[in-house]
Input
Amino acid sequence: MYILTIIKNIKLMKNITLVYSSIFSFIFITCNAQVKLNDIPLQDEVKNYTLETVVSGIQIPWGMTWLPDGTMVVTEKTGILYQVKDGVKTEIKNLPKVYNRGQGGLLDVVLHPDYKKNGWIYITYSSTEGEGDGGNTKLIRAKLQNGSLIQIESLYKASPNTTKGQHFGSRIVFDKEGFIYFSAGERGDHFVNPQDITRDNGKIYRLNDDGSIPKDNPFVGKEGAKEAIYSYGHRNPQGLAMNPFTGAVWEHEHGPQGGDEINIIKKAANYGWPVVTYGIDYDGTSISTESEKPDIEKPIYYWLPSIAPSGMAFVTSDRYPDWKGHLLVGSLKFQYLELVKLKKDTIIGRQKIAVNIGRVRNVAQGPDGYIYIAVEGKGILKIIPN
Output
């Protein structure tokens, strides 16, 4: 009888422990559920367009641009550079060796604003060159001749290398004055790189078109500083675009779990990572208890929960009257395109486009005025208004 009583008590204690465990799990999940108070509502899409496949068979299309004759140049993350004409893709030869690991690989591609005269194409990719094992983000320029890259010039290589697979960035954009900006993520060393201007990574860089350092860069002459740095305190910027209406460079970056940001890039500005963040770590623990601090630039908008943004483009085309003057951002996580409605530098509305299309890696407005989206596993699609 005594033994039976002990067994019953043990079973009861197990049940009580299970109940308490469930309660604490519920409390933990509830407390860590990410809700942004007074957020701008995300409107459902109004499908007044059709989608047309421009080219298929590109598994992770990352960057895209257009030659003067309308030929597209597309990067595929694993390390293939394509030119696409009339739906047919052809591999461009003589690409430097790409370090294809994790989130690294062949990344962005843009043309020089005066491409018709000088023929320069700019590319970022992860490279093994330099100090240490692994790789880091590199910027080159080259010319295209007879389907092959020639006159390849190294413009900047972040260092040291690391075998970590995350946060390479990278996007490239020219401003109205002809300076080139490119991004490099913090390579997974968020307590080391982003806040230290003597180290690469977690930065937006600004260079002359030949890779030299502009004399008015903010950290020129500062002892030990990487003089190419224009802004710092970034996590993993995968959106970079010049606002055609103001000339300012806009950026978006991945937060951790929550806290993806849209920022307007300012000279010498600190964007806070990881000192401040609106997100939490992937295990639910806190990275920082603060989301704002003096002398740290606040984002003009942040997503909570994360959408995992990739690619961004301002719409200037008359083909899309309801979208003109606003911003498009791809979502990897939720697999749609987000129309971010603007009133000058203020976000006033949000709307879904191309719902369930797949992981949107990039978005761009072509020289023909159409919007093109790069979707993982599908290739490049064109949005045609009805």
Notes: The two ends are 81 Å apart (CA to CA). The CA atoms of residues 120 and 143 lie 5 Å apart. Helices lie at 2-32, 115-118. The first helix runs from residue 2 to 32.
